[in-house]
């Protein structure tokens, strides 16, 4: 069996700004969704791919930010090499691959390399992609997903030849509509990808020498600089993903991702979740160190972190509650993310609307409480973003509370 390796692109502190204020305290890849850090979900799916020897996480977070996760992941997936390589600055989605090419290609030399973005929630059909990839002779296979026509232009759009699955055209965020099939942020490449990246880097250097507007640096974009020419050269194929897929860009999309992952875990690994009962409406994840009053009603689509205390008569639905937060008696949390160390007073209510299909500028859907926010008894907070360390004692709606 030929060797396969995987790269997970996690970005760095200047990325994930739309997840603020949650990412002020917790780096985006480590944000808990369905009881596990965001980056864990693709890694656990990759760990099931036969012949996969190594997962390399590339980002520009400090090593110390990722080290705890790497240690735990190595323990959980002992048969796979798992490491973190840190870019000295943001190098773009292909710059890090170029910079670390020797580490990626060191023996066992991989024949195939998965590349996976962190900011997506997906069923990660890696094995199906590998099967399609081994049937054609292209340099790469991209996972395409279908989105609504109104939102397609927010993504990298793909035009495919239906019979052959050959990608004939790729445009990143086009000005006008070209297709409803978009880049799902998962790729499988032959090792010859590195020849293509070298060509793209050389072309960029040549352009920079001629054109003062083109910067001469190590930044390279996988989508525009590598995939666009590969599509033009008819060297890439498209795997059409029919299973669930969402982008996780905003905090509101984390609530949707939480629901999608919990629903999937319910089918694949139900023991990880809390048992259904009259007061637990599945799917619900409750960390083993959380304390839950038996009269609280929880679910569906709830993830409760370590050390959380849930009091008498509390109601929680469609929500993520992060570590060490206290939900006092009869408080209620719906369509929200409650950050760590918050204190929600008795009879207080935190709620929002489900994530809309289209973002409306200035409109907040889901409520986000950052870390160490406290709500006085009976306070109502609806569709608000609340920054860290705030104490609220008046009702608020559709506001950013600084
Ligand atoms: P936006 O809509 O502008 O955010 O663009 P996008 O959806 O195309 O996402 P983007 O290209 O910013 O990121 C795609 C993936 O690559 C994400 O998983 C990022 O974390 C990751 N990423 C982006 N830039 C870098 C980078 O410079 N280095 C690394 N290692 N990862 C990156």
From TrEMBL:
Residues 280-398 form the Mannose-1-phosphate guanyltransferase C-terminal domain. CDD domains: M1P_guanylylT_A_like_N (cd06428). Its EC number is 2.7.7.13. Residues 5-203 form the Nucleotidyl transferase domain. InterPro entries: GMPPB_C, Hexapep_transf_CS, Mannose-1P_guanyltransferase, NTP_transferase_dom, Nucleotide-diphossugar_trans. Gene3D superfamilies: Hexapeptide repeat proteins, Spore Coat Polysaccharide Biosynthesis Protein SpsA, Chain A. One of its GO terms (molecular function) is mannose-1-phosphate guanylyltransferase (GTP) activity. SUPFAM superfamilies: Nucleotide-diphospho-sugar transferases. Pfam families: GMPPB_C (PF25087), NTP_transferase (PF00483). Pathway: Nucleotide-sugar biosynthesis; GDP-alpha-D-mannose biosynthesis; GDP-alpha-D-mannose from alpha-D-mannose 1-phosphate (GTP route): step 1/1. It catalyses: alpha-D-mannose 1-phosphate + GTP + H(+) = GDP-alpha-D-mannose + diphosphate. It comes from the Eukaryota. It is an enzyme of class 2 (transferase). Belongs to the transferase hexapeptide repeat family. This is mannose-1-phosphate guanylyltransferase. It comes from Kwoniella dendrophila CBS 6074.
